[in-house]
Target: Alliinase C-terminal domain-containing protein
Amino acid sequence: MLNKLLVAVSIILNLVLTIHILYNNNSTTWNPTWTNRAAAEAEAAASVPCSGHGRAYVDGLGVLDSHKPPCECNNCYTGQDCSVLLKDCPVDADSGDPLFLEPFWMRKAEESAVVESGWHRMSYRYYKLGAFVSVELEMIIRELHSIMGNAVTDNRFIVFGTGATQLIAASVHALSQTNSSYPSRLVTSVPYYNMYKQQAEFFNSADLMFEGDASAWKQCDNITQVIEIVTSPNNPDGKLKCAVLDGPNVKTIHDCAYYWPYFSPIIQPVDEDLSLFSLSKTTGHAGSRFGWALVKDEAVYKKMNTYISLSTMGVSRDTQLHALQLLKVVIGDRGDEIFHFGYRTMKKRWEKLNKIMSMSTRFSLETIKPEYCNYFKKVRDFTPSYAWVKCERLEDTNCYEIFKAAKITGRGGEAFGSGRRFVRLSLIRSQDDFDQLIAMLKKFVSKEAVVVVESI
Model:
């Protein structure tokens, strides 16, 4: 009798233990252990309201002394909780920080969060492959372009870089002639992104010389060793661009950082030998410093990889993990939510800007004809990241200074090779920044009518 009882008890205990193991292995109520502190710190910082005009971060000033993360206020706001708006504060319309997407990611707090162990990817390389790149991240980038229809990735190598900035340098290095009697000439269309010129002049390589406007070389009979950078959509004016030069001695880099539905209709996939993209203008995470190049030629791919390897030993593994999680969120619904959110935001901003500028005879905006967008399946306007403004009055010879005097800090046209009659105004910063820009522009443009009346 006793033996039967012991057997029964043993069976019951085994069943209980089995159920317990199975339940714990499959339970959705799994309780974390070592992630509690990190999660609590992240949520504590994110919960600081800052009056809606700033943010608190886990690495904010004072946290090493166990202080609560302080508010870091948006431009023109101050006070411990960012509740004080400074009067007559200059508007920052210079920076290209894509903070217009911040509200989307705040809504996606749970899906986009990343927690990693203290021993995450301590090696220089990914162990099994001995490489500097995450295979999963490369796969998700290919899937993203397939969904968006904005770039061909078949038969392309992918190079990761510390933002598009490093990839520009790596591309130029890979395409430059080495050990040549004459340096390669770097050209691009005016107006051009000023980083191209700045990099070429800063590195001061014997193998490369910045030569400015590509159009100036179009009639040249003897084009040799030319590298043309095609920025499409263009920074600063938002236009879709094509290469100006061609021929056996011309090599082309296509900077497509802004070719996303927030800013431009997706007309056709980019199908070029070398094209560049960045996380900054894809998800808005400029601070993560991550970009990628799609490269057709294996020799160019290897040269770019060598440049990245020797300069930074690849891209931070933590950055690649962060980018992977963000892009998983993006493609989760085939980009529908983030790209509709971003496009609606930019569309509303352009509508407000156009309404104000239409009342001005002193300033004009670059206009671009609407195009059919293959992603949204409709004809739509361009909604560029920046407003490319021209000062029309003959006496307004320095547009940057004209706007600066009105407490609007943009970026002068000279930086883009276009002369002083132009200024670039950023439209992709935070909602506070945009609201301040609109308020100051209204005030500025309204003075035109007063000046006209007084001059009569």
The mean pLDDT is 91. Residues 23 and 30 are 10 Å apart (CA to CA).
